[in-house]
């Protein structure tokens, strides 16, 4: 889908991207992460030609990006940023329809797409389509910004620190919405963040950059299980590495078929082991009852099993 071939980019003689080689497959959610000045935002902006690279090639769907008309290229790539950038004097509906209108969509088609996206983001179309940005909360504005990026059903969604300015509760809710949208749509998403927990939660593949080069690339589990260097270990966090690993492991394989004692705290069977540890600690308990979506008890989870080497049956 997207391929960097030996890409370099300098600012005033200082390398921001240094010989970058990277393949992003169709349907992946790839997170570019690293410290300030690592080149992650620069790499993202090279994809849709908001910046020009100095050397190498970037391919999109097998074609060099400079073979596309720049406007056509950008219309095939949704772009969402932290500052949202909504037009203040346009309604929510008109903001979302920015690209479809440029593409000449009919009013009926645009209205249908606006309703679909507002519904997808939990914003009732009849309540929000005619509001203006100043009438929305920060989280609602960010939802509209992402909806606008998705409006013309682009092949790729590029996101640069999209949730960085939001409060923790709103940020968590939007992260889960993005994860759900990716799982249901199968869309290719490239996201920049400085937040390792956000990367671990969302990514299929994490690209950790340092001084314009890839320090390590792999799944969240691969980075946590086998950090390639002291830099990687320090970046992902030495102190709570074990807790982060638990956040990637589900509780379901550890469930015992025997019921927990009466009155034991309850937890969804789809939860992570990190969530189980938090629940056990919060309730000063040693056993949890695991529940399905209908609220039916399925079995039990024992604290000792979280740290055992083999799951119980």
Index terms:
313 residues, alpha/beta, six-stranded mixed beta sheet, four-stranded antiparallel beta sheet, 14 helices, 36% helix
Q: Which residues form runs of ≥5 with pLDDT under 50?
A: none
Spatial order of strands in the largest sheet? 6-7-8-3-9-10
Structure class: alpha/beta
Oligomer: single chain
Helix tally equals 14
> How big a fraction of the residues is strand?
15-25%
- Main sheet record: 6 strands, mixed
- Tally of DSSP β-strands: 13
Distance between the termini: 42 Å
Kindly state the percentage of residues in helix: 25-40%
SSE string, helices as H and strands as E: EEEHEEHEHHHHHEHEHEEHHHEHEEH
Categorize the overall geometry.
globular
Residue-averaged pLDDT: 92
Cα-atom radius of gyration = 22 Å
Walk me through what this model shows:
With 313 residues, the chain is α/β, with parallel strands linked by helices. The chain has 14 helices and 13 strands. The longest helix is centred in the middle third of the chain and has 18 residues, at 168-185. The relative contact order is 0.12.
